[in-house]
Write a structure and sequence with these properties.
Elements (H helix, E strand, L loop, with lengths): L1 E2 L2 E4 L2 E4 L10 H5 L2 E3 L2 E6 L2 E5 L1 H14 L8 H15 L4 E9 L13 E9 L6 H6 L1 E9 L17 H12 L4 E5 L5 E4 L3 E6 L2 E4 L10 H12 L3 E4 L4 H6 L2 E6 L3 E8 L2 E2 L7 H14 L10 E3 L8
Parallel strand pairs: 9-10, 9-16, 13-14
Antiparallel strand pairs: 1-8, 2-3, 2-8, 4-7, 5-6, 5-7, 6-18, 7-8, 10-11, 12-13, 12-15, 15-16, 16-17
Length: 311
């Protein structure tokens, strides 16, 4: 992770070292924040943010579900993101918009605390490694279950909820795996610690739906669309844990992880133990879409305007 020099905070660009919050910030104590993970890529048309509008929509939806009114419009957030990327000079970057309850009255009731917004960008390679994207990763089913609908709101990308993923991530890493797979409260497959899951068997692609307490991933939607456009059948359904061990192929999608194959689950090889044909086909089209090489998906790329040179 290479830090950029500027961060956008509540309408102003500030130096990285000056981007600070008060120790009594409500979100720091109670996890009352929502965020997005977004990426911009260097494309033939310039630096472009992948599915930017969809990410902004999800950010605002997450904030609404936690009773936070974002003090900026969607257009203002988009323009601010363009500005911080352009001023950073990065051609490709990871983007982190964060909406959170700031310093105010302490206690669990948050509605009297201000809503603050920041946007940071930095250089960040493949989350699960370039080798993982190429050859697949090893995963284990976590002992931790995904938070259910009747405990929190899995469809919101909220900061405090990620303690659930943090526990599963630590467990998998300490056990010698690259990633963990969480089951839902009923024992069905849910998702990775920060990725959505796809399973291929007999030529059909299956992925858990919202009833499994998934976060609705933007790259998940992209992979589904690409797979259908390639002629594959995609089914959203409950997936039993045992199906992971019978799958011909498994892959994960996420903004940080992009599209990463899984070659092994719980020390059992997935299929041949190498990324399969369907995974490779979807991954190839997906990479072209991310990097602006696909005319079919060009509308997914939000090109960052080049700033006018200062005289």
């Amino acid at each position: 992770m290479t830090e950029a020099g500027l961060i956008w905070m509540n309408g102003e660009l500030v130096a990285h070292e000056d981007a600070k919050v008060h120790v009594l910030t409500h979100a720091l104590h109670y996890g009352t924040g929502v965020f997005e993970g977004v990426r911009a890529y260097e494309t033939p048309r310039g630096t472009a943010i992948f599915r930017h509008t969809d990410h902004i929509d999800r950010l605002f939806n997450s904030a609404r579900m936690y009773y936070m009114d974002v003090p900026y419009s969607k257009d203002e957030i988009r323009a601010a993101t363009h500005e911080v990327i352009a001023r950073s000079g990065l051609k490709s970057c990871y983007i982190r918009p964060l909406v959170y309850r700031g310093a105010g009255p302490m206690g669990l009731y948050p509605l009297d605390c201000p809503v603050d917004v920041c946007i940071a960008v930095w250089e960040w390679g493949a989350y699960l490694g370039d080798e993982g994207k190429q050859n697949g990763i090893r995963a284990k089913v976590s002992s931790w279950r995904k938070i259910p609908h009747d405990a929190l709101i899995p469809t919101a990308k909220a900061t405090g909820q990620y303690l659930n993923s943090v526990l599963a991530k630590i467990e998998s890493e300490k056990a010698g795996y690259e990633e963990g797979i969480l089951l839902d409260s009923h024992g069905n497959v849910c998702e990775g610690t920060g990725e959505n899951l796809f399973l291929v068997r007999d030529g059909v692609i299956a992925t858990p739906g919202y009833e499994a307490s998934i976060l609705g991933g933007i790259n998940r939607l992209s992979a589904i669309q690409i797979a259908k456009d390639l002629g594959y059948e995609v089914v959203e359904r409950n997936i039993a844990r045992g199906e992971l061990y019978l799958a011909d192929e498994i892959f994960m999608t996420g903004t940080a992880a992009e599209l990463t194959p899984i070659r092994e689950v719980d020390d059992l090889a997935v299929g041949t133990g190498e990324p399969g044909e369907i995974t490779r086909a979807v991954q190839s089209e997906f990479e072209d879409a991310l990097h602006g090489r696909s005319e079919r998906y060009a509308h997914w790329n939000d090109v960052v305007p080049v700033p006018t040179p200062t005289p």
